[in-house]
Amino acid sequence: MTAPPDLSIAVAPTADLGPADRDAILALFRQNYRDANAAYLEKSLHVLAFAAIARDPEGRPAGFALGEPRVIDLPRLPAQPVRLAGLCCVDPAFRRQGLFRRLEHAVLSARELPAAPRWLSAGRMAHPASFRTMSANPTVVPRRGMRPTPWQQAVGAAIAAAYGTRDFDPETFVCRGTGAPIGWPVIDIEAAPEEWELFRPVDRTRGDSLLGISWTPDAPPGWDDPAILP
């Protein structure tokens, strides 16, 4: 994939970001979230290994994404390739050009993963619109009207821990925050009432988010079987 015309995308380890890149990421975060919590962003920069930053020909930042391809020992799934998606923010002037998806693709391809029959994708969301693409995957957890199986709950807890979440509710897949909001997404995409169902237990005033996980190209055998224990 290539960036939109006149934009370049560079991927770098978050540990190697200099002051200019960190300032650009913070400025974009503040553009996309009211009352943006800089401490939450800083934690994300420590937890996730890579950042992708898009810039125009004059060097002005157009967007960024945080994330990491990682191999994780999951319940019943040793050495499982996982793609951990993090924050992704795009300057309003560059939205609706496919930049969000391209930034995520760049950061989640930053490290080669070992060959495997399938991989797990994960992300934390604060708004149903962010969950829309993942929720269309038939393997997704959580799902409306379905209680996660014991195995799914255990995998969810392991992924939440990989994100540095200390308080995870395996029944609702809510990652409880530290008591301060992450910020309030500046978003103009409407969500249907049923899309909000999974987000009802998400308390954004304390910094909660919803964890979503899904498989590509398919789930491991028994993924939906409530009789399978982790």
Automatic annotation (TrEMBL):
SUPFAM superfamilies, alphabetized: Acyl-CoA N-acyltransferases (Nat)
Superkingdom, natural source: Bacteria
InterPro entries membership: Acyl_CoA_acyltransferase
Name used for this protein in its record: GNAT family N-acetyltransferase
Organism: Tepidiforma flava
Origin organism lineage: Bacteria, Bacillati, Chloroflexota, Tepidiformia, Tepidiformales
